[in-house]
Structure formats: C-alpha cells, structure tokens
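Entry, Tuesday afternoon. Goal for today is a structural model of the target with magnesium ion bound, before we commit to ordering more compound. Inputs were pasted exactly as handed over by J.K., no edits. I checked the ligand SMILES twice against the vendor sheet because last time a stereocentre got dropped in transcription.
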Amino acid sequence: MIVVAVASGTSADGLDVGVVDLRTGHDHTIDVRVLDTWTEPWPDTLGERLLALLPPATTTAAEVAALDTALGQAVGRVAAAAVARTPAPVDLVVSPGQTIHHEVVGDRCLGTLQIGQPAWVAEATGLPVVSDLRTRDVAAGGHGAPLAGILDRLWLAGGTGPRVALNLGGIANVSVVAPDGSTLAWDTGPANCLLDVAAARATEGRQGYDVDGELAARGQVHPGLLDILLKHPHYALTPPVSTGRETFSAAYLDGALARVAGGDGRPDWPDVLATLVALTATTVADAVRPHAPEEVVASGGGARNPVLMAALADRLDAPVRISDELGLPGDGKEAVLWALLGWLTWHGVPVTTAPGTRTPRVLGRISPGNDPLVLPAPIAPPTRLTVRARDEERTP
Ligand SMILES: Nc1ncnc2c1ncn2[C@@H]1O[C@H](COP(=O)(O)OP(=O)(O)O)[C@@H](O)[C@H]1O
Ligand SMILES: [Mg+2]
C-alpha cells in the first residue's frame, strides 16, 4: 500500500511530505520503504497566520475557520502533487492537521484540536484520507501525543539494551524502547519552539530560527535564566505526558526574561539562545539518563543544529546517532510516522500513547475518497518494523 502523508509539526515551518510503501511482512512485521520525503514551503502567509493563533494572541472563530479551510486546501494541493509525481498508484492520504491547541492540565490531557479540513484533501486527491489521529487516544485517557512511540517501539525493539529515539521538533519527545519492545514515550519539554521565538526577536524577524546555532554559539549560558526555566512544573511530571506551544510560548519566554530583567537585566540575545540550548539539552539528558540507553537516535530539525547536538552529547553518556543511519530520514521521520499511523488505522490496528496503562484504540477519522470506503480486514497488531532501502528487492 502506498501512503502519502502531509503534515506540519509544532514548529509550523512548512508541510512535511512522505511517500511511503507499507506492507505486511513475515511474522507480524511491517515492511516500510520510504519512497520520498521533502518539505513544501507554506503558501503565502499561511505559516505566519497559524503561528499567530498562539498565546498571547487572541483570535476569532472566523480566523480559525478560515485557517481550517486554507490548510485543508494547501494540504490537498501538496498531496495531489505528491500523488501525481509518484509512479505507482497511491492508495491513501494521511493529513493529521496543525495542532492549534493542546490542553494539558498537570499530567492530564483534557483535549486537543488539529485543524485542516480533510474534506479538501479528499476532494483534491479523490483518495480516502485519514486525519484527526490524536483525539481518540485522548478520549481513552492518553495524551494523544507524542505518537512517535508507536513507530519507535516497532523500529527499535530487539537491541541488547534500551534504545532511545529523540525527536527535536518544536517540542522534544523521547521514546525509551526496551529490547522486548516495551516503550515509554513522552514530551520532555521545549526544543526549537523557544529557540525560534528568541531567534526571531534577536534578528527583528529576519530569521525564523537560529541557522546552525550561530547565535547560540556566540552566547554564554545565563545561570539565573536557566534556573528560572528549569523550575517549570512540566519537568517534574511522571511520564507519559505531553506539552505544547501554548505552554512553552513566546509569552512564557517573555515572562522568564522579565524575571531576570527584574534582577540583573535581560541577557543579550545570544546568551538567551545559549541558555535555551542548555535548557533543552539538560531536560532531555535528565529524562534519558535514568534509562541508561545503549544509544540515542536523533531526528527532527533540531538534529541539524550543531550547537544543540554538541550540548546534548556533552550531557549524555550514550552515543547519539542520527536516524538516517538506521534508515529513516531525520528530516522526514515524522512524515513516515504519520504514514504508518494512517496505515495502522486503515488496517484496524489499535495503538496507544500509554502502553500498559491505557487500552489501545484504532485512532483517527477516515474521509472517503471518490469511491465508497472499502476497508481491508483488520490485521493482527504488528510487532516489528523493517525499514528497507528504496530499491531493495522484496522477498515475496
Ligand atoms: N540548520 C538548522 N540549524 C538550527 N536549527 C534548525 C536547522 N534546521 C532546522 N532547524 C530547527 O528545526 C525546526 C523544525 O524542526 P521540525 O522537526 O520540522 O519541527 P516540527 O516537527 O515541530 O515542525 C526549525 O523551526 C528550526 O528551529
Ligand atoms: Mg516541521
């Protein structure tokens, strides 16, 4: 089955596209072949308008509705182009939408909202669309995020010790995967979301992020600011938990800077950026260390930030690898995750963000394409995932 996934993460930095061939293999494995991944820039001002929904901004139902439509249309155009350039017929589109609010109180997720009407995607492609992949998990008592553990446990089980997958998106999330596949996955805290805010402020809007960590590299960690930031209650929660940009927002960073300013004055922007790098590296390393993994496999845009990667390597005992080394593209891993989740929904496989404590559910909502919906018979839950090279021969 060939699945096209089009998604935007918390960074709202563009639409990540994945074209993935997924098949059931021997012995409850899923055979995954990543045919292509790339990122499409936002049309016009869509990315800015999505970011403008975040606190401290207020918005209107009219703007939310307009963005729900505009994003659905944008995903539809990108998905249709991806279908057109894929030589083999595409069977399914996955469009998880943009999270505009993720309501977490203490260690509970009360609700989560992704926009980007899937009807536009079905209309543009004529294909069935899986969307809304978080809310059923929330309704079943989970956080609906991070969902990465569902892929990571299939992908990284079978080591000689625990392995950790680390995704450095707007938010940092980790999956600790034991050799037998049991997995604990949660959001450790901010990765790029605060860095991006600080980079934009530092450059008066000229840069959306700190390219290659150049600003952070020029700064020094400000111990007073780091202390204030490390006191956020999220870090003391017992996983699995999630968080989002409504918590680690521009308003939150401004509040922390104001508290420092009340003392010895706001640090220079490079120092703020260096401190935010230290915040992510410290909170990730503190989260990972007790699990003593044999390796940490990094992905996401933050893995391209050499200053952040060096700060992490300093604080972790385990070697840090990039997910490309294990066959999944670091930049495209999230798109592969969405393709997998849509495929699991299509095949009636229940999953959960909190294995062991919550009952797995079949996630998502399916919009029919041009033809009536005909679902395959549900399959037994897969236990392993094999990543094959694009042109690797398949064993029949
Ligand atoms: N060369 C780079 N140097 C520093 N940061 C980078 C670089 N490339 C990407 N990033 C960071 O990665 C972010 C995007 O990461 P991504 O994995 O797409 O996150 P999300 O899933 O939240 O959208 C950007 O906003 C930026 O902060
Ligand atoms: Mg992104």
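The radius of gyration is 20 Å.
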